[in-house]
C-alpha cells in the first residue's frame, strides 16, 4: 500500500497535487480551528468575567440600598407618635395598639420580607405585630429569648438565627434595632426591633438575576455567632448550584471563596461595615459548550473545504496535465516524422535514449523525474535531436538565406510584439482612468449621503440633549414632592387616628350622660382623656402646618420661574428645610449663615434649583459613603452684587476633575446614577437666567467651595418653560 502510494506520487503530478492540497487544507483548518477556539474561549471567559463583575457591583449596590431604606423606615417608626404613645402611657396603650397594628400591617403588605416587629422596654415585650412568636423560657420562668434579643446591638445591622430566641425555630433573619426617640432624645431601655427574613430578601432581590445561561447571584451572611449562612434558594437543582453548595461547606467567610470550583467560577464582594457578602457564580459550561460547538462547526467546514480542495486539485491537475500529455504526443510524432524525411540520406533514423544514449548532445535536458514532465522532457530531447539533424541539412544548403530570413522574422516579431504591448498598455490605462472616474463619482455621492445622515444625527443628538437637560431640571422638583408627601403622611395619619378615637369616646360618654349615671371619677377620666387627645391632635396639626408653610413657597418658585422680590435668607432656609428629610439620617449637616435684609429682585425658582443641585451634589460626592462633615452656606452683598457661597469639608477634587465639572455629561459616578448634567445646568442657569457667574475651587482632602455671584436685580426676563 505504502509502496504503491509512493510510486503514484513519484510518477504523477496529479497525485502529488491532490496530496499537497489535502495536507495544506487539513493543516490550515486545524490551525484556524485551534486559533478560533482559543480566541473564542478567551473572549467568552472575558465576557463572563465582565458580567460577573457587573452583576456583583449592581447586586451589592442593590442590597446596600435595600438595607439603607429599611434603616430609614425603622428610624421613622421609632419617632412615630403611635409608637411614642404606646411607650409613653401604658394605660392608653390598648387604645393605640389597633391603629399601630393596622399601620404595621400596611408595611407588611408592601414588604413581604418582614418577619417580626417588636417593641421592647426593659427586657419586656410591649408589642408583637404577629402575636404568635414564642420566646424561650429560662429555669426561673424568665424569658431567655427576650433577654437575648435585648442584648443584641442597639444600632447597625446584624444577622442572627431565630434559634437564639427559640431553639425550636431555624430561620436566618436580619436584625435591626433603634431606640425610641421622644422630642429628639432616645429613651433608655426602649427599642423598636425589626426582623427581616434573610431568605425572602435573597429570593426577591437576586432570584431573577442570571449570569449567562446557568450562572446566578446569591447573598450570604455571617451571623453574630460566627456561623456562615447560605440562603436555601441555592438548593442544588443544577450542577452549578451543587458545586456552589459543595464549595461553601469549608468556608468561614466569603473571602474563602475559590476562584474556580469544578464547573463554576466564583467572585465575591463584602458589603462595607455589614455582615453580608454578594457571591457571583458563573458556569464554566457557558464557555465550554460554545467552544465545543465552534470546534464541531469548524471541523465540519474543514471537511467540506477538504472535499472542495480535493475536487479542485483533481480538476485543475487535469487541466494542467492533459495539455502536457498532448504536447508529449505531438513532440513524439514530430520527432518520428523528422527522422523519416524522404530523400535525405544524411538524416539517421531516431532511436530512443534507452537504445542509443549517445544520440543526445551535450545540452540535452537531464532529469530524473519519471512523471508527465519527465516524459515530456525526454520527448523534447528526442525532438531536439531530430530537429538538429534537419537544421544541419538545411544550413548546409542555404546558410546565408536562412540567416537573413531569421533576422527578418525576428525583427518582424519584435515589432509586432511591441505594437501589441503598447496597444494593450494604452487600453489598460484607459480602462483604469474610467474606473477611477466612476469610483470618484460613487464616493462623491456617498459623501453627500453621509453628510445628510450626519446632519440628521446632529439634530437628533441636540434634541436628546435638550430632553436630558429638561429632565434634570425636573429632578429636584420630584425630590421636593416626594419629601412633602413622606413628611405629611405621619402627622396627618396621627391626627386622623386621634380625632376618630376622640369621637368614639365622646359618643360613649354622651350615652352615659343620657343614661344619668355620670360619676365624678368618670367625668375626670373623660376630661383628662379628652385633653390628652386634643394635645396630640394639636401637635400633629401644627407639625403638618409648619411643613406646608416651609415647602409652599419653594414649590411655587421652582414651578413658576417668575421674577419677584424676595429675601435671600428666607429663600435659603426654605430650600434647606425642603431638603432636610433627604439627609436627616446622614452623618453630615448643613450650617446656614445668611444675614437678613439681602433683598433681591430676581428669579427665586432657578436660584433655588441651583442651591438644591449644589447641596445634593455635596451629599452624593463630597460626603459619599455617609461621611461626617459640614456644609456651610454663607452670603454677602457688595453694592448691587450678591455672593452666595456653598462650601464643604468633604473629599474634595483633584485638578483634573475640577477642570471638567461644568462639562455636560461629565461625572465621576458613571453607571451609578450620575447623569453629569447637574453642574452644567447650574452654570447655565446662573449665567443665562440670573446674569451672574458660577466658580469652583477644591483641594483633595480639604473640601470644595462653589461661589454663585449674581446681581440683586435680574438683567433681563426669562422665557417661560416649554416655549420656543
Describe this protein's structure.
The protein has 724 residues and is α+β, with helices and mostly antiparallel strands. The chain has helices at 2-11, 13-78, 81-88, 93-110, 144-151, 198-206, 239-248, 285-338, 372-397, 399-515, 520-560, 568-579, 604-622, 655-658, 678-689, and strands at residues 114-121, 124-128, 157-161, 172-182, 185-197, 210-211, 215-222, 228-229, 260-261, 264-270, 276-283, 564-567, 588-593, 599-602, 629-638, 641-648, 693-699, 703-711. Strands 6, 7, 8, 9, 10 and 11 form a six-stranded antiparallel sheet that branches. Strand 9 and strand 10 form a beta hairpin. It is elongated, with a radius of gyration of 47 Å.
User: Mind summarizing the main beta sheet?
Assistant: 6 strands, antiparallel
End-to-end Cα distance, whole Å, is 91 Å
According to DSSP, the number of beta strands is 18
Which structural class is indicated by helix and strand composition?
alpha+beta
- Helical percentage: 55-70%
Radius of gyration: 47 Å
- Low-confidence stretches are 342-368, 720-724
Tally of separate helices? 15
**Average of pLDDT:** 78
Strand content: 15-25%
Molecular shape: elongated
Topology:
Elements: H1 2-11, H2 13-78, H3 81-88, H4 93-110, E1 114-121, E2 124-128, H5 144-151, E3 157-161, E4 172-182, E5 185-197, H6 198-206, E6 210-211, E7 215-222, E8 228-229, H7 239-248, E9 260-261, E10 264-270, E11 276-283, H8 285-338, H9 372-397, H10 399-515, H11 520-560, E12 564-567, H12 568-579, E13 588-593, E14 599-602, H13 604-622, E15 629-638, E16 641-648, H14 655-658, H15 678-689, E17 693-699, E18 703-711
Parallel strand pairs: 13-15
Antiparallel strand pairs: 1-2, 1-5, 3-4, 4-5, 6-7, 7-8, 7-11, 9-10, 10-11, 12-14, 15-16, 16-18, 17-18
Helix pairs in contact: 1-2, 2-8, 3-4, 8-9, 10-11, 11-12, 11-13, 12-13, 13-15
Amino acid at each position: 500500500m505504502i509502496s504503491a502510494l509512493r510510486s503514484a506520487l513519484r510518477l504523477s503530478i496529479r497525485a502529488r497535487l491532490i496530496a499537497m492540497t489535502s495536507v495544506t487544507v487539513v493543516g490550515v483548518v486545524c490551525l484556524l480551528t485551534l486559533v478560533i477556539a482559543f480566541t473564542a474561549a478567551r473572549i467568552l471567559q472575558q465576557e463572563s468575567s465582565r458580567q460577573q463583575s457587573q452583576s456583583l457591583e449592581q447586586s451589592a449596590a442593590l442590597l446596600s440600598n435595600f438595607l439603607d431604606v429599611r434603616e430609614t423606615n425603622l428610624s421613622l417608626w421609632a419617632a412615630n407618635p403611635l409608637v411614642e404613645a404606646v411607650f409613653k402611657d401604658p394605660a392608653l396603650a390598648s387604645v393605640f395598639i389597633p391603629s399601630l397594628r393596622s399601620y404595621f400591617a400596611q408595611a407588611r403588605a408592601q414588604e413581604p420580607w418582614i418577619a417580626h416587629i417588636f417593641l421592647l422596654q426593659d427586657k419586656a415585650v410591649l408589642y408583637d405585630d404577629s402575636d404568635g412568636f414564642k420566646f424561650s423560657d429560662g429555669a426561673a420562668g424568665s424569658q431567655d429569648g427576650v433577654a437575648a434579643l435585648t442584648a443584641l446591638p442597639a444600632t447597625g445591622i446584624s444577622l442572627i438565627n431565630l434559634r437564639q430566641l427559640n431553639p425550636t425555630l431555624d430561620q436566618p433573619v436580619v436584625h435591626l434595632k433603634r431606640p425610641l426617640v421622644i422630642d429628639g432624645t432616645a429613651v433608655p431601655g426602649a427599642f423598636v426591633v425589626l426582623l427581616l427574613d434573610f431568605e425572602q430578601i435573597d429570593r426577591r432581590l437576586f432570584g431573577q438575576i442570571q449570569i449567562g445561561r446557568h450562572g446566578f447571584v446569591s447573598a450570604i451572611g455571617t451571623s453574630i455567632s460566627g456561623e456562615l449562612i447560605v440562603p436555601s434558594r441555592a438548593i442544588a437543582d443544577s450542577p452549578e448550584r451543587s458545586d456552589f453548595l459543595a464549595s461553601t461547606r469549608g468556608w468561614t467567610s466569603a473571602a474563602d471563596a475559590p476562584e474556580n470550583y469544578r464547573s463554576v467560577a466564583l467572585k465575591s464582594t463584602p458589603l462595607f461595615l455589614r455582615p453580608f457578602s454578594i457571591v457571583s457564580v458563573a458556569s464554566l459550561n457557558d464557555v465550554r459548550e460554545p467552544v465545543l460547538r465552534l470546534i464541531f462547526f469548524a471541523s465540519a467546514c474543514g471537511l467540506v473545504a477538504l472535499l472542495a480542495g480535493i475536487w479542485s486539485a483533481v480538476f485543475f491537475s487535469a487541466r494542467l496535465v492533459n495539455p502536457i500529455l498532448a504536447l508529449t504526443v505531438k513532440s513524439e510524432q514530430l520527432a518520428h516524422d523528422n527522422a523519416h524525411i524522404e530523400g535525405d540520406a544524411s538524416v539517421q533514423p531516431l532511436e530512443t535514449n534507452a537504445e542509443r544514449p549517445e544520440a543526445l548532445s551535450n545540452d540535452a535536458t537531464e532529469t530524473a523525474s519519471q512523471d508527465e514532465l519527465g516524459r515530456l522532457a525526454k520527448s523534447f530531447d528526442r525532438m531536439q535531436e531530430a530537429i538538429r539533424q534537419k537544421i544541419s541539412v538545411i544550413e548546409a544548403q542555404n546558410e546565408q538565406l536562412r540567416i537573413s530570413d531569421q533576422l527578418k522574422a525576428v525583427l518582424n516579431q519584435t515589432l509586432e510584439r511591441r505594437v501589441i504591448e503598447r496597444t494593450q498598455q494604452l487600453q489598460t490605462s484607459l480602462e483604469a482612468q474610467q474606473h477611477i472616474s466612476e469610483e470618484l463619482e460613487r464616493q462623491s455621492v456617498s459623501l453627500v449621503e453621509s453628510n445628510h445622515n450626519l446632519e440628521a444625527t446632529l439634530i437628533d443628538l441636540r434634541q436628546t440633549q435638550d430632553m436630558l437637560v429638561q429632565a434634570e431640571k425636573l429632578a429636584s422638583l420630584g425630590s421636593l414632592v416626594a419629601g412633602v408627601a413622606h413628611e405629611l403622611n405621619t402627622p396627618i395619619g396621627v391626627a386622623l387616628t386621634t380625632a376618630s378615637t376622640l369621637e368614639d369616646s365622646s359618643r360613649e360618654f354622651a350615652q352615659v350622660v343620657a343614661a344619668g349615671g355620670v360619676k365624678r371619677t368618670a367625668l375626670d377620666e373623660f376630661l383628662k382623656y379628652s385633653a390628652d387627645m386634643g394635645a396630640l391632635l394639636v401637635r400633629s396639626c401644627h407639625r403638618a402646618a409648619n411643613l406646608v408653610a416651609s415647602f409652599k413657597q419653594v414649590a411655587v418658585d421652582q414651578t413658576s420661574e417668575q421674577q419677584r422680590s424676595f429675601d435671600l435668607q428666607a429663600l435659603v432656609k426654605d430650600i434647606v428645610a425642603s431638603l432636610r428629610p433627604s439627609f436627616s439620617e446622614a452623618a453630615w449637616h448643613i450650617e446656614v449663615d445668611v444675614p437678613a435684609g439681602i433683598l433681591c429682585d430676581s428669579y427665586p425658582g432657578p436660584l433655588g434649583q441651583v442651591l438644591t443641585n449644589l447641596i445634593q451634589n455635596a451629599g452624593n460626592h463630597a460626603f459619599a459613603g455617609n461621611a461626617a462633615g459640614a456644609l456651610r452656606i454663607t452670603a454677602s452683598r457688595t453694592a448691587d452684587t450678591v455672593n452666595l457661597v456653598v462650601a464643604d469639608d468633604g473629599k474634595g477634587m483633584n485638578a483634573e476633575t475640577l477642570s471638567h465639572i461644568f462639562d455636560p455629561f461629565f461625572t465621576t459616578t458613571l453607571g451609578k446614577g450620575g447623569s453629569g448634567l447637574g453642574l452644567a445646568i447650574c452654570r447655565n442657569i446662573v449665567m443665562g437666567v440670573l446674569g451672574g457667574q458660577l466658580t469652583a475651587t477644591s483641594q483633595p482632602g480639604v473640601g470644595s467651595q462653589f461661589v454663585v455671584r449674581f446681581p440683586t436685580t435680574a438683567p433681563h426676563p426669562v422665557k417661560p418653560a416649554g416655549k420656543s
